[in-house]
Amino acid sequence: MIICHDPKFVYYAPPKTGTTTLDTIFRERGFIGTKERDDKHRITDAVALASQGYHFFITIRNPFTRLVSCWRYIQVRKQWSTIPHQVMHEELSGVSFRDFVLNTNWSVEPLANMLRPQTDYLKAMPICHQMIRMESFDQGVRALPFLPNDQAVPFKNSTVGDTADKHYGLQVAQHVADFYRDDFQAFGYSQHDWMKR
User: Fold this and answer.
1) pLDDT of res. 44
2) Structural domain count, the chain
3) N- to C-terminal Cα distance for the chain?
4) Integer Cα distance of 172 and 137 in angstroms
5) Going by C-beta distance under 8 Å and a sequence separation of 6 or more, which residues neighbour residue 34?
6) Nearest-angstrom CA–CA distance, 14 and 42
7) Mapping DSSP to helix (H, G, I), strand (E, B) and coil, where does residue 176 land?
8) β-pairing, 8-12 with 130-133?
9) Bond into 110 cis (ω within 30)
10) Domain span holding position 55
11) Which of 65, 76, 77, 60 is nearest to 167 (CA)?
12) Cis peptide before 15 (omega within 30 of 0)
């Protein structure tokens, strides 16, 4: 979660939903510093800010493509800031996407935080003024009330061009659909979307 006091906003940031891009924009505009970046994925109590005119928003993404992005991120990133993250990388480096889905314990940190359903973040929000979908990211970012509507959006996602369908089969897709059932229902994504991506 990112809290900014000038301008007033609270950003709930599920990993792999465009958070690096927004982080870059907010830094370039001087909205945030190092501490906020370190805390950005934590869910904390922001109820007190809801009555003070803060704009609450969240970024979301199709669970199928989000999971591919998480898996690829673990595979390709070489430098990790913490020992648990480095251990996670070493244990999962070279693991196929199928094994990552079907044979990996997702309840162990830091993986559990990376893969947490996006609806968990919504449950923690006292209010949500705006949801920015990864599928229409530029448009959503430009609709933020504290940014100009011609804001340049530096897209930094390393999985652009990587299609979900080459990673999924029926068994893997069903496992993901079951795990992220609430995300599919809450955000209107189809559990058959993996076949179209």
Assistant:
1) 52
2) 1
3) 29
4) 27
5) none
6) 9
7) helix
8) unpaired
9) yes
10) 2-196
11) 65
12) no
> How far apart are alpha carbons 8 and 150 in whole angstroms?
20
Nearest residue to 154 (alpha-carbon basis) of 26, 12, 24? 24
Over residues 168-193, the pLDDT tens digits come to 888 999 999 999 999 999 999 988 76
- Give the tokens for residue 161: 């061009």
Alpha-carbon gap, residue 111 to 74, rounded angstroms: 10
pLDDT in tens, 61-110: 999 999 999 999 898 887 788 888 888 988 998 999 999 999 999 999 99
User: Which residues neighbour 137 within 8 Å (Cβ) at sequence distance 6 or greater?
Assistant: 18, 21, 59, 153, 155
Helix axes 83-92, 63-76, angle to 10 degrees: 100
Token representation of residue 153:
């959006």
Residue among 60, 101, 108 nearest 84 (CA): 108
Alpha helix positions (H), 42-189: 47-50, 63-76, 83-92, 97-102, 111-115, 118-124, 137-142, 170-179, 181-187
For residue 10, CA distances in Å to 36, 70, 191 come to: 11, 24, 30
Residue 110: is it exposed, middle or buried by C-beta count within 10 angstroms (0-12/13-18/19+)?
middle
Strands 55-60 and 2-5 come out as unpaired
